[in-house]
């Protein structure tokens, strides 16, 4: 988590603080590509919901420190998915998973 905070300072600052910027950024981008492609294949288009959750997490946490933002994002994602599924089933009366209903309209 601390490496992410150092990377957020910029390329030059992270290099000056001892982080191998190119290597760390390359590894992070490869991991992101693998995780997004796997989750999109398994879960479906709801993966792109994470863009909204990420930005809302930064607003709620009111900090750029990942040790605060990541737990907020996990909790916010869980709450939104559960509430969305409840609305889908109870209010709209549909019996489909929320991942399939996002693009069915």
Name the descriptors.
single chain, 105 residues, mainly alpha, 2 domains, 6 helices, 0% strand, elongated, disordered C terminus
Query: What would the average pLDDT be, to the nearest integer?
Result: 83
Largest sheet: none
User: What is the N-to-C succession of helices and strands?
Assistant: HHHHHH
Count of domain modules: 2
* SS content category: mainly alpha
Ranges where pLDDT stays below 50 over 5 or more residues in a row are 101-105
Radius of gyration: 17 Å
Q: Count of DSSP E strands?
A: 0
Question: What does this 3D model show about the protein?
Answer:
The chain has 105 residues and is mainly alpha-helical. The protein has two domains: 1-43, no CATH class; 44-105, no CATH class. The protein has helices at 2-7, 11-16, 21-43, 49-61, 66-91, 98-101. Helix 4 crosses helix 5 (66-91). The termini are far apart. Mean pLDDT is 83; it is low at 101-105.
Summarize the structure.
The protein is mostly helical and 105 residues long. Helix content is 74%, strand content 0%. The chain folds into 2 domains: 1-43, no CATH class; 44-105, no CATH class.
Topology:
Elements: H1 2-7, H2 11-16, H3 21-43, H4 49-61, H5 66-91, H6 98-101
Helix pairs in contact: 4-5
